[in-house]
Design brief:
64% of the residues lie in helices and 0% in strands. The chain is mostly helical and 107 residues long.
């Protein structure tokens, strides 16, 4: 279930970015703020989907120690997200601040 959910979240979220003609690549400046679809519930659905996929793989592996990898990825991605949020604030100002205050970073 986490793998299928994660793939769905990543796919739909990528389609939303492409449909709205904004960058899919993490370190490129977006041209717009997407606030519909999964972006209505999470500011970072693609990263969330990746963590779900990795968690599902760890469940399949069945090793308790392997669950450290999704946790480490979460910590790493949180650092990236904080940098992205600063950039979004510079690019979109109050519009992004409003979105940030209305939608959680993860879930």
């Amino acid at each position: 279930i986490p793998i299928i959910s994660g793939i769905s979240i990543v796919s739909v979220s990528n389609i939303m970015l492409i449909k709205n003609k904004t960058s899919v690549k993490p370190f490129r400046d977006p041209s717009d703020i997407i606030t519909s679809g999964f972006y209505k519930f999470s500011r970072n659905p693609i990263y969330l989907g990746i963590i779900a996929i990795l968690t599902g793989i760890e469940v399949l592996l069945g090793s308790l120690i392997s669950f450290i990898f999704p946790f480490l990825l979460f910590i790493y991605l949180t650092g990236i997200v904080k940098k992205e949020e600063k950039r979004m604030l510079i690019l979109f100002g109050d519009r992004y601040l409003k979105y940030k205050n209305e939608v959680r970073r993860w879930i």
